[in-house]
Amino acid sequence: MGYSKYLAKNERNIFLNPERKKQLLLELSEKPEIYRIERPTRLFRAHALGYKAKQGYFVVRARISKGLTRRERPNHARHPSKTGLFFGYDISKKEILARRILKKYPNAIILGGYYLVENGQYKWYEFILKDRSIQD
Questions:
Q1: pLDDT tens, 25-41?
Q2: Residues 66 and 122: beta-carbon distance below 8 Å
Q3: What is the pLDDT, as a whole number, of residue 75?
Q4: Which residues contact residue 117 at a Cβ distance below 8 angstroms, ignoring those fewer than 6 apart?
Q5: Structural domain harbouring 94
Q6: 72 located within any domain
């Protein structure tokens, strides 16, 4: 087996372990919505998306709430029959997070992102970013 197969096998074993998942969720619940981390949690997936452990590349972890968006209920005299309360978007949750990250880090380019973990309320993703000013 080559290096990448070992990484993939090790990664699978880590995320299939319920104790590891529980520990990770406890750690994530205390953190803010979007923040930068030292190194990727899923190294194999990060390398597949273009991550390199060198200056100019960094990893951002972000969370987004699960479910649809809720609109305010009209509180006037009449209630329209088509009072829609819950609306979905035409783009994925991952794409919404990518846009939020680019607002916070405008000098970066997103190389890719991958799913990390979820609980009943949130989904967490990690995104690989590259500084625009760094040339390869």
A1: 999 999 999 999 999 98
A2: yes
A3: 74
A4: 15, 21, 24, 25, 28, 123, 124
A5: 33-67+83-136
A6: no
